[in-house]
Design goal:
heterodimer, A: alpha+beta, Ubiquitin-like (UB roll), 2 helices, 21% strand, disordered N terminus, B: 13 helices, globular, binds fe (ii) ion
């Protein structure tokens, strides 16, 4: 997340997550400024759901989001790289075998 | 890693069309260029509400009024998406507002022209939003992630803007002689400024090469302008109107329309603050910001008070 500018007169920054329809995950839509959670939700409705893009909104103050470090993403995700046996295509099985 | 390693990794990502995200390393000038471009773009959306806002109370029917309101509200949304995209690069919202209100930051010159008749609402939707769309569709693949995502969202919303504008003109063009004259007059006034929206010609645009290298820009100003001319000439035929350029002619060899020279002197004049409405627009914008100050202050005071109260409750509980 961006480093918050400690601009005293500025309303805090919030990240907005929207569920586009029941059954789907909330997805990051963008951010906005609001003085509190209620205002953030109302503003999110006006800014991000003018065309029925959502049935549910989550907001969280940006400063509470912790993110992995992009510069060490190589090392962080490396352990997943060499374990191709986690994928179904790794297994060599006869063509006659069905429903699997 | 040294700066050179970072630079190499960055160049490689650009070449492979891998998006740059806020916390990734990026060259200072890339960051600066983006802050300038995205904030200017945001300012344009915000100031762009003013010429159309001028007609909301005088829209000729309830339908037109609802549509115009929705369009202007969309433009506010576009400004907000873009401001938050720019903020991911480390500039604050207030800093950007300050640059706009002090006249330090630019916004699209097109909004410094007056909207004198209802037909202007049609011409703006058709030509001004049309030119903006041409530019914005290309930017959906810009290299900076948050900017590209904002553009995708904006493009989805823009298409109705252009269609409602064309519909206004189409309806008026089937109306009385006076209405047809209003349409032609609006087209005559908005055509050239719309072509100027794509910016200076390529040989006068020193930053284009770098922006293309960074894939911030995907097409040059002249390429996009040509594309706009080609599609718009055809659309104009449906209106049965003419574009105010005697040199407009299909060029079989090039497969494009030739068009006359743009008045760059006028362009630079308006950019530098001497357009018909520069002063009025900035004043209206600054006034809205100042008049809203008590609301911002009150909201602040309210939240401080609530924090204090919940703070004292917590300490009692503990
Ligand atoms: Fe817009
Ligand atoms: Fe628009």
């Amino acid at each position: 997340m961006p480093e918050q500018n400690s601009n005293k007169n500025e309303w805090p920054l919030w990240e907005v997550f929207i569920r586009s329809k029941a059954g789907l995950d909330h997805k990051h839509a963008g951010s906005l400024h609001a003085i509190d959670a209620n205002m953030a939700i109302e503003n999110a409705r006006d800014v991000y759901t003018r065309r029925m893009e959502g049935v549910s909104i989550w907001v969280v103050e940006s400063k509470y989001i912790h993110a992995s470090d992009p510069d060490s993403s190589g090392a962080l995700f490396d352990p997943a790289n060499d374990k191709i046996y986690r994928h179904p295509t790794f297994y060599d099985l006869p063509d006659e075998l069905t429903h699997m | 890693m040294t700066v050179r390693d970072f630079q190499e990794a960055f160049d490689e990502k650009i070449d492979k069309e891998i998006a740059i995200e806020p916390r990734d390393w990026m060259p200072d000038n890339y960051r600066k260029t983006l802050i300038r471009q995205i904030s200017q773009h945001a300012h344009s959306e915000i100031v762009g509400m003013l010429p159309e806002g001028n007609w909301i109370t005088r829209a000729p029917s309830l339908r037109r009024k609802a549509v115009l309101l929705a369009k202007v509200q969309d433009e506010a949304g576009h400004g907000l998406y873009l401001y938050s995209a720019a903020e991911t690069l480390g500039i604050s919202r207030d800093e950007m507002y300050d640059q706009l209100h002090s006249g330090k930051a630019k916004y699209s010159s097109i909004f410094n022209y007056p909207t004198t008749t209802w037909a202007d609402m049609g011409a703006i939707g058709w030509l001004v939003d049309g030119a903006a769309i041409m530019n914005q569709v290309a930017l959906c693949r810009t290299s900076y992630g948050p900017y590209a995502r904002a553009m995708v969202r904006i493009c989805k919303e823009e298409s109705f803007h252009q269609r409602q504008g064309f519909e206004i003109l189409l309806q008026m063009s089937k109306g009385t002689e006076i209405q047809r004259r209003m349409v032609q007059d609006a087209i005559d006034r908005w055509w050239w400024p719309s072509l100027m929206m794509f910016g200076p010609s390529d040989d006068n645009s020193p930053n284009t090469a770098q922006s293309m290298r960074w894939r911030v820009k995907r097409f040059t100003n002249d390429e996009l302008r040509q594309r706009f001319v080609d599609v718009t000439v055809e659309q104009c035929k449906i209106l049965g109107m003419t574009l105010p350029d005697p040199e407009l002619k299909w060029n079989e060899e090039k497969g494009h329309y030739d068009f006359g020279a743009i008045n760059w002197e006028e362009f630079w004049n308006v950019v530098n603050g001497n357009g018909p409405c520069n002063k009025e627009r900035l004043e209206a914008r600054a006034k809205a910001w100042e008049n809203g100050k008590w609301v911002r202050d009150a909201a602040f005071a309210y939240s401080e008070k609530r924090k204090e109260r919940s703070g004292s409750k917590d300490s009692k509980a503990a």
